[in-house]
Specification:
alpha/beta, 145 residues, D-tyrosyl-trna(Tyr) Deacylase, Chain: A, 6-stranded mixed sheet
Amino acid sequence: MKGLIQRVKRASVDVDGTCIGAIDHGLLLLLAVECDDTKTNADKLLKKLLAYRIFSDADGKMNLNVAQVGGGVLAVSQFTLAADTSKGLRPGFSNAASPDQALMLYNYFVAQLRDVHPVVATGEFAADMQVSLINDGPVTFMLNS
């Protein structure tokens, strides 16, 4: 499981011109489920996501996590992060989970996130989404489970 996180001032996701999820400051999570992923991978990534210290403390050092700054999390499924780009000029998606497996693990991840974090918004699985954000920093990291 891969999660690309971006520290944001705000972020939102629209489907068909309608905003379906938005947060103010916090984390935008682009989440990819790979074919070998399980709930254990989702649990590991969730723990890392919430504990990852990428927000500035009073001294300007990245020392605080999203909960410590009262930030939200916008979780958006993005299977393209599972792409194999090592060969040729077209990405391969053999590493990506099947749509059924990916949906199950995405929903599991979001449910677990909502159980432990107060501000959670999401995109719509497999929809054509337009994601808007103001990247704070910019600060962007790839997390792997």
